[in-house]
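User: Just a sanity check before I run the rest of the batch. Below are the structure tokens for the first item. I only need the designed sequence back.
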């Protein structure tokens, strides 16, 4: 069952991603410098066991014209082996620094805690200062560095982990 949650900005609601969101999700992905998944990969993920860990933040402006883009951002994670892996999080540029990324992340972390996993982890480009600041703010800590992990451009990855409790 969908549960609309009010984010920091009360015109934003967080709900589960559906197939109808994918064109906007891919558009946000393409404009955010993330490693490419593309429509087919998101669609496949929506058919799998982790679809409850795919969330969108939607601008709910009552005077918005029909057909206007409404997704501010999204997050995609996976659960496995007692860990929550945050794969992608991105916010449309004009909606950044409003607390939406943090709200999406917190919602996913709550899911992880509810499921009893021990920790959450993620990788990010070493020079991605905005993401680093967001994750640090949410309690993640750097545990290792993977040399030349990313391509186009080649860059190191930082691995960050947050203990959630669970069976740890
Ligand atoms: C990283 C990203 C998701 C952050 O989303 P956001 O909605 O702008 O972040 P929030 O507004 O929730 O920020 C929460 C906190 O994170 C930190 N933060 C976020 N962006 C920051 C920035 N550009 N510079 C410094 N700190 C930043 C701040 O501490 C901020 O709290 P504050 O605004 O009260 O100071 C967004 O910049 C983005 O989409 N970037 C491109 C895609 C990307 O790099 N994704 C991560 C891949 S690993």
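Assistant: Here's the designed sequence for the first item:
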């Amino acid at each position: 069952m969908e549960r609309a949650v009010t984010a920091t900005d009360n015109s934003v609601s967080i709900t589960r991603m559906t197939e109808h969101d994918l064109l906007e999700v891919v558009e946000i992905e393409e404009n955010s410098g993330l490693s490419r998944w593309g429509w087919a990969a998101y669609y496949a993920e929506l058919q799998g066991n982790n679809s409850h860990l795919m969330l969108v933040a939607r601008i709910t402006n009552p005077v918005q014209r029909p057909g206007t883009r409404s997704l501010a951002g999204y997050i995609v994670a996976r659960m496995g082996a007692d860990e929550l892996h945050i794969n992608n999080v991105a916010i449309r540029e004009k909606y950044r620094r409003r607390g939406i990324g943090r709200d999406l992340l917190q919602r996913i972390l709550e899911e992880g805690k509810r499921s009893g996993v021990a920790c959450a982890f993620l990788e990010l480009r070493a020079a991605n200062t905005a993401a680093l600041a967001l994750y640090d703010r949410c309690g993640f800590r750097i545990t290792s560095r993977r040399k030349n992990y990313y391509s186009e451009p080649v860059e190191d990855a930082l691995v960050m982990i947050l203990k959630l409790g669970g069976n740890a």
